[in-house]
Amino acid sequence: MKLLVTGGAGYVGSVNAAHLVEAGHEVVVLDDLSTGHADAVPEGARFVEGELSEAAGPLLAEGFDGVLHFAAKSLVGESVAKPELYWDGNVVATFRLLEAIREHGTPRLVFSSTAATYGEPERTPIREDAPTRPTNPYGASKLAIDTMITSYAHAHGLAAVSLRYFNVAGAHGRFGERHAVETHLIPIVLQVASGSRESVAMYGDDWPTPDGTCVRDYIHVDDLAEAHQLALQKAQPGTHAIYNLGSGTGYSVLQVVQACRAVTGHPIPATTAPRRAGDPAVLIASSEAAASDLGWKPVRTLEDMVGDAWRFTRDRAGA
Ligand code: UFG
Question: Which of 245, 260, 281 is the last residue of a domain?
Answer without folding.
Answer: 245
